[in-house]
Amino acid sequence: VRKSMVLLKNGKSMNKPLLPLDKNASKILVAGTHSDNLGYQCGGWTLEWQGLSGNSTIGTTILEAIKLVVSPSTKVVYKKNPDADYVKGQGFSYAIVVVGEPPYAEYFGDNLNLTIPLGGGDTIKNVCGSLKCLVILISGRPLVIKPYLPLVDAFVAAWLPGTEGQGVTDVIFGDYGFQGKLPRTWFKSV
């Protein structure tokens, strides 16, 4: 998991990187459909042919891994799909938004527009429009991210990390460096 993660963006400018994240932050917002869902982390061809949603196997979700790695004094708030009003004025140090595709295999995953499904784009806009944020994309292929890049401070492709959410947190909190590379340039549009 650690070796496959690809850092796509880190900071709105090269002089102000967001990663590695601060483990001692006072309050962190964790949002997105893929934050607390092992089935989504695993994808298709895993628990079943088309995969499953939910925590129906043994493992660590990304949300659980975040709670394990941050300081005991850090308050971790999870809200799957917060609206923009909820995010403002809550005193969050930063946000981690985990979005992506539902599990699929073969032709069931055909997608002609490759947009981020399950309301992921709205979650990115609602959260990253008001807070410093890291977006983690869980998918088996590149998806359209260009519309969200100006809003986002850091963007990571975590592909399908499976049951080991702690492999994701090992890298975003700086215990290990990013090693993953893209085999080709991420597309600007479909």
From TrEMBL:
GO terms for molecular function: beta-glucosidase activity. It comes from the Eukaryota. Residues 5-189 form the Glycoside hydrolase family 3 C-terminal domain. It catalyses: Hydrolysis of terminal, non-reducing beta-D-glucosyl residues with release of beta-D-glucose. InterPro entries: Cellulose_Degrad_GH3, Glyco_hydro_3_C, Glyco_hydro_3_C_sf. Its EC number is 3.2.1.21. The keyword Repeat does not apply. GO terms for biological process: glucan catabolic process. Pfam families: Glyco_hydro_3_C. Keywords: Glycosidase, Hydrolase, Signal. The keyword Calcium does not apply. PANTHER family: LYSOSOMAL BETA GLUCOSIDASE (PTHR30620:SF16), PERIPLASMIC BETA-GLUCOSIDASE-RELATED (PTHR30620). Belongs to the glycosyl hydrolase 3 family. This is beta-glucosidase.
